[in-house]
Structures are given as C-alpha cells and as structure tokens.
Amino acid sequence: MRQEKTLTHEFVEFIPDALKEGTLYVSMEYATVVHKCCCGCGKEVVTPLSPTDWKLIFNGKTISLDPSIGNWGFECQSHYWIRNNRVRWAAQWSPEEIVAVRVHDRFAKERYFGAAGAVTEDAPKDTPVTVETPKEYPSIWQKVKKWWHG
User: Fold this and answer.
1) Cα angle vertex 42, ends 40, 47, to 5°?
2) Rounded to whole angstroms, how far apart are CA atoms 78 and 68?
3) Domain ranges for the chain
4) 26, pLDDT greater than 90
5) CA separation (Å) from 117 to 26, 109, 123, 127, 129?
6) Where is 6: in which H helix or E strand?
7) Which of 26, 50, 89, 121 is most exposed by smallest CB count within 10 Å?
8) pTM above 0.70, yes or no
9) CA 61 distance to own-chain centroid
C-alpha cells in the first residue's frame, strides 16, 4: 500500500502552465480540477466537474473529489480517492473492470445529455468524450456562487 499523501488546493481562474506537485488547482469558472498524478509520475490529471464526471466537495477548509480517480490511460495506472485534501489509495483494477466503467460512463453521459452527448457504437473505446453543458443549465459552480452570495 502506498503512503498517504496530503495535498493543498488553490482556487484559480486559469490553470497554470507549470503545476506544483501536491497542489489541486480548482477553476470554478471552467468547472475543472487539475493536479499532477499523486503517484509521482508527473502526468497532469484533469477532472472535469459535471453531473456525469466528478463532484467537488469544499467544506471551507479542504477539497474532496468523487468518484475516485483512475488514471487508466497513464503507464502508472494509479487509482486513488481525494478526501479532505488527502490521497487515499484504492485497489488496482483489472482491464475488464476498467472497460466496464468506461462503458458505464459513456452511457451515463448519453442518458444525461441526450443526442448532444451521444457516443456512436463505432467510436474507439479510448476516445475521450467531450460534451458541452447546455448554456441554460447552470453549472455546479454557478449554483454554489448563487447559494453563497444569496
């Protein structure tokens, strides 16, 4: 089991070009959290915040992301949770488990976004799915800002 790691976080508008090891960069404007892979491989991990991707929990002091982060496309294939600015290592998944979750994620996007987010049957499994949130639907950050500022 890997050693527990504590992260810091920074709220930014734009993600910096050079990422600091152990820092979560949170862009509310772009509904994205970016950090260097917690295994130490140096790869950039992007976690988009949306109803079908990750959810950010900020308790005023620390950040948590849900669900876990599985870096299946990286050589390290690290898998971890970020809970209260701490990295909690998760079990390694089999190739079959990874494929099953990718298929589930694609169908969840299609169900949520409808035709705009539809993935064709012939699309390669490793092709990233890019979905635009309809402009009339407020992002999670817009909801948080509205709630926070009244």
Assistant:
1) 100
2) 10
3) 5-143
4) yes
5) 24, 6, 13, 13, 8
6) strand 5-6
7) 121
8) yes
9) 19
Q: Edge-to-edge, what's the strand order for the sheet holding 32-36?
A: 8-11, 23-27, 32-36, 44-48
pLDDT tens per residue across span 111-136: 888 855 444 444 444 444 333 434 45
Token reading at 115: 């035709």
Largest Cα separation within the chain, whole Å, is 46
Q: What is the Cα 91 distance to its own chain's centre? A: 18
Return the beta strands (E) in 8-141 as ranges.
Answer: 8-11, 23-27, 32-36, 44-48, 55-58, 63-70, 79-83, 86-89
Phi, psi of 47 (to 5 degrees): -120, 100
Q: Report CA dihedral (89, 40, 55, 17) to the nearest 10 degrees.
A: 180
Instruction: Read off the tokens for 23.
Output: 């820092």
- Stretch 99-119: mean pLDDT, rounded? 79
